[in-house]
Fold:
Amino acid sequence: MLNFCIRRLLHAIPILFGVSILVFGLVQLIPGNPIDLLLPPEASPELIAQMTKAYGFDQPLHVQYLSWLWRTLQGDLGYSIFNGAPVGEQLFSALGYTFVLAIPAALLGFGLGITLGVVAAFHQGRAIDKIFSALAITGVSLPHYWIAIVLVMIFSVTLNWLPAQGMGFIGFPTSLEHLRSLVLPVITLSLIPMGVVARVVRAATLEVLSQEFVATLHAKGLINREVVFHVLKNAAPASLAVMGLQFGYLLGGSILVETVFNWPGSGNLLNLAIFRRDIPVMQATIVVLAFFFVLLNLLVDIAQAAIDPRIRR
Amino acid sequence: MTITDFSGFPPHADLAALKPVESPGYWKQVRQRISKDRVTLVSAGILLMIVLSAVFAPLIAPYDPFQGNIMTRLKPIGFEGHLLGTDETGRDMLSRLLYGGRLSLIAGIVPVAFALLIGGTLGVIAGFAGGIVNTLIMRVTDVFYAFPSILLAIAICGMLGTGLFNTLLSLTLVFIPPIIRISESVTTQVRGLDFVEAARASGAKPLSLIRHQILANVLGPILVYATSLVSLSIILSAGLSFLGLGVSPPAAEWGLMLNSLRQAIYVEPVVAALPGALIFATSMCFNLISDGLRAAMDVRIKV
Structure:
């Protein structure tokens, strides 16, 4: 098991290295000279030269890349061009707010998804299977930024039950009143994971159910509840993999939902950085989100191997 | 997986002499199964209607989609000849939705088509060649997999700037890696099957092996997967426009229309929700068709 963990860890290092090259390369795609974005058009050539030197843009690309990589590895994410604040502070407080949404959304989406998937699989072909599968495919096909608006229309504009936008608190939610502003974004975010997880869990469960050992378990005289336990244990690795990916999407893909609800998370930060052409913030946000995604995949692989020894090969 | 194409096997034998007993044929069976699948047929019908109304928008649209009228802003459904109401600058919603389908469908389908061409080629090569070529292609693919798809699309679009071309480019780049993975995995499976080995032993060259043995057996699963990607692509491309990273106003595009009508939810909620409803309906159709094809073709792939 330890062996497997080490091997998986070693596999992640070149990927993270590739990620850093890709993100650095993406920034080079920005048309024009980055200094032009910082300075007014009437800036003197001396000032331009000075700024170019200060930001290290006069160095060859590979030197720029290595010095950026070195600083990032030491935890120095640079300073925002827009407001001069350290990127690290902004980014990690924003990430905290993204987690405040992502964790309950994941719990809700995974819980519903697993329930729908398992119940549908055990009633394959019957009405309940069809209804639950329809719910699942609806979840997968929903543009979440649209359903966010529809939910606001119903619960904020028409019924006036829940706040339409914003957080209503600083830090972490501590009272019931604070939780009200969480309800709509969390429901919105949970719909896609619900659909995806339900579909994968249903497929995985059906595959296990078609195997011979299930008939053996029944023949041995196990009651249904015990058989279900065995089936679920065997369907778990495939389902876990998808849940890991989906949690990553909740962290990295919440930008649209955060924009609709004006939620000060990492997605909103990235959106603002794009429109402000704030390169250090863009770079840092993308790298950190990708880092979390790789880390999550790593954890999922290890969890899978812990459940199913065959994967450790 | 059913083996469909015996035309190259054995490569040099007289096929007429070996002609087997007539069987229904794989594609005929697939057609039969689909013709019994009501859900797939209905969603294909709805999708066809959406596509046709986008293609023939200039003929159907009752008004100029770009001509506003300050006196008829944000009118409800059925207002004075505006069947679906008007938007925030008084433009006819029905006309804009019809025209909007053009950009939205293009932004949904074109990236997947290009990604299918590029990713499919790379994936089949990786799967067929194996060894160092496979390692090289797949490790680069792994790096792209370190980003959630929406994050990668937003990152590339944010760097390149707005516009339809940049949307298409960024989404193509986003969809190449998943298509490489699927094509590599099915090609690797097919490559190990006995009939490929037999063809190789009979002296078939690599290119003819790919053409006759591999492609016919991997295209089905890859296409099924690509259909479900179109659904995602429509959501993502409209999402990019929604963020202001896609096409620019006054273009008619569903994501952009949804965004510009966001403030109107307090005045005309139903009209404001229409563009999103169309994104949802189109994406749902593609997902249902993908599911139907998967069942009819008996494809087993992991998404």
